Request: fold
Amino acid sequence: MVVPILLGITFLTFMLLRIGDQDPVAMLAGPMADEAAFAEIERELGLDQPFFIQFGVYVGKLATGDLGESWQSSERVADEIRNRLPASLELLLSAVFLGAIVGVPVGLRAAQRPNKLFDQVSRFVSLFGFSVPTYWIALMSIFVFFFLLGWAPPPLGRLDLATFPPRDITGSYLVDSLLTGQWSTAWTAAGQLALPVILFSIIVAAPIIKHTRAISLEVLNSDYVRYAKSQGLRPRTVRRIALRNSITPVLTFIGTELTGLLAAVSLLELIFAWGGLGQWGLNAILTGDFAAVQGYVLVLALFSVAVFVVIDVLVLLLEPRATLRP
Amino acid sequence: MSLLEVSNLHTHFISHDLNNNLRIAKGLNGVTFEVDKGEVVGIVGETGAGKSLTAMSIMGLLQPPARVVEGSVRFDGNEILGLPAEELNKIRGTELTMIVQSPLTSLDPLSRVGKQLVRAQREHRNISKDEAWAAGVETMTTVGIPDPERRMSAWPHELSGGMAQRVLIALALINGPRMIIADEPTTGLDVTVQAQILDLLQGLVRDRDMGAMIITHDLGVVAHYCTRICVMFAGSIIETGPVRRVFNDPRHPYTQALISSTPKRIAEKGYGQIGGPPPNLYALPAGCHYRDRCSRAAEVCHTSPLLQEIGAAHHARCHFATESSSESATVQHG
Amino acid sequence: MTDIAVTSPADPGFTWSGRILGITRRSPTFAIGFLIVALFAFVAVFANVISPFGAIETFSSKVLLPPGREFWFGSDGNGMDVFSRVMHGARFAFGIAVPSAIIMLVIGVPLGLIAGYKGGMIDEVVLRTMDVIRSFPSIVLALAVVAATGQSLVNVVLVIGFLDAPIFTRLVRSEVLALRSSGFVDSAVAAGNPTWRILFVHLLPNAIRGSTAMIAVRMAWAVRISATLAFIGVGIQAPTPEWGAMIRQGAEFIISGEWWVALFPGLALVGIVLGFNLLGDGLQDLLDPRRKATGK
Reply:
């Protein structure tokens, strides 16, 4: 099931890029180039070949794990991804963690007393999170916390200019500097992370609140919760039964959100000059770097596959009903 | 004093419509009945008549917008209506237990059968896990579950419908209740299993001198297993009495129609069909609620009929209840 | 015990104030959302009248003035009045939300009707195609397509409509399946109705009803994503008074402290998107009161 979907996505991206009227050759050649230079670049990139030959060549290389080279930087796409993905994951996973530890309890609490004050307020907050553009709230917070209050460091990447990155272990500067005992580096990295993570966790928490509430309401109205009440179990016990039964669907939901969030985080990366995968992918799309775009889309797809594998394993551990999928 | 005394129970669904007008659906309109120990009372009626609502109201399981607005429920002489959960739980699940209608969805999917049996005891009584486990195995044996030790470690989803229903019965018995409310305990089970389950239930009630209330829409079940019958229509009990009496001499036209619609009776007596939709609970007609569907409806039916005593413990809520049923049968024919 | 004579309440009847109160009681979110969207619609229609200046009228000597008596929301880097531009931006918001919603429905609904009604191969193919489209993170796909197909308002609208069509296909399809299994379709067929009539006369109205709330939610998304595209520099370009493009203009002044250029268009954007979202959320409560209690 995974391979056909990946192939389909690769094909669709391939086609979209080539039927568009974006002209990567002109961008690469620059305004002074002549016909011969154009032809040379086209030949180099393989753009002179028929569409299906181009696609065949790409997939052929892909099968051997070769993602090609970026048209802009001539770096290997696989290397670029390897270097940038940790930065994005560091931001994304911290924000998802924060968003979940705030959003899940809020959703659960809202479901306890539907349509009462807490529920109405949390629903409004959640809808606000759905409605506020990431980049705008980022700009406004930079103004307030950096320009006005000076609490946040300048939004210029993952470390300040005077700090060297720690030895590469996980790729996350915070984790790596903690692992190698470089406390001041860790402090700097955490400071750089704080604002974007908090902002992104607002975006992350919105759907988590909404869906946790819905899932929890469904569980609270289930036959087994009503039956538990009829058994005269203590309210605390009934709540625990409801909670345990809500965990799997909530986890699954958060998993389904992750890929979209990995894409959405690119806007924050842009504003905080994060240098992660998203910023790179965004740039690739804008500059017509077809090889890089192709690689970016593939990583997103693979990421979602990976997330689903993890979720499946978790469900298998948590759910007696779950069995291994054939 | 009977074990369970329900009197004048009114349960309403209260909401507002889009024009901000108060909307009240009168789910129960003054339900009164008693269940004594050693008795099996059958509650019958069509969907929406208020059978399950009665059980939910008694057990304190109503969810908004449903609310008891009037009436009283006494268990062993003590009022239990409106008690907070902590107080109610001294009776609910121990003295007064319930068997619900969808066993497969009612067991906690994330707890093994044994754990649920142990939990049900330890929530109410101070006993050790081992004791509770042993009691669980014993009760599983009582309700006829083969290989109970092994079933104790089964997950609910691994049980068949009949087996899950037996587990529910075991859960209902585990704390030695004095009364059981069974809400359609055998719907969805095949006929052989139905009979086994009901035989089991009847035997237990008799042996332990408990009271039982069985909600069903199967008159056959009532005829076989119950000592008394309450027929509900539009949120009221319209006829009640000893099973044999009511079956042989039904006085309310609805009861007559209900009984006649069982295949055997149709062949024997040829009563008319039940026919017609249930009345709109948002706008119940004044007077007799069955009026619009009744073949005997007359001018007097625009006033509310009183519960009339027909014979020993046999009552019916109909203006014509005191006329004999053979007469009413002819009227229906005419 | 005597039975109390049951009185049915007098027919309540309809009054406007009663209806407004009733809706507000059932769903405060709907009421607030409706108010917000109505306010923005008013602004869009009367943008010319409300604005003291033209949307692209420049005052080259009055660049980056803070909010004051002349320029209520300040002036931007080109010496344009931010207030007038924000007011005119409402037109773009509706100009994108409404047509893209129409396109979503025009593409998505018939596909859903046919897939649900015909079933089999057609259903399978439609569903799989929609799955592949939806498996892309929408922002990436929107960006890629707009970057590739050229940057114009029409393209943005088309892309948004196309990307969201699968949502309605799925909704309508499941709605049709439900209607099919209820025997509703069978009786229409038995009555001798031709297929197109069953699809568009019998199934469509029922199926659409289930999509109403989603339309508002997707309009919110349309406004949001189009602004995002403009912010990235794809799609609508400055000096068009589109909120996303205006925030992009304002971004460079944030570090130097000229906050008003980005703040006000952003507030307007949050306002209208929130309005549509509240509207959609509230519509769900109104159309399916049970959902509110059960969360479905």
Chain A touches chain C through 60 residues (CB under 8 Å).
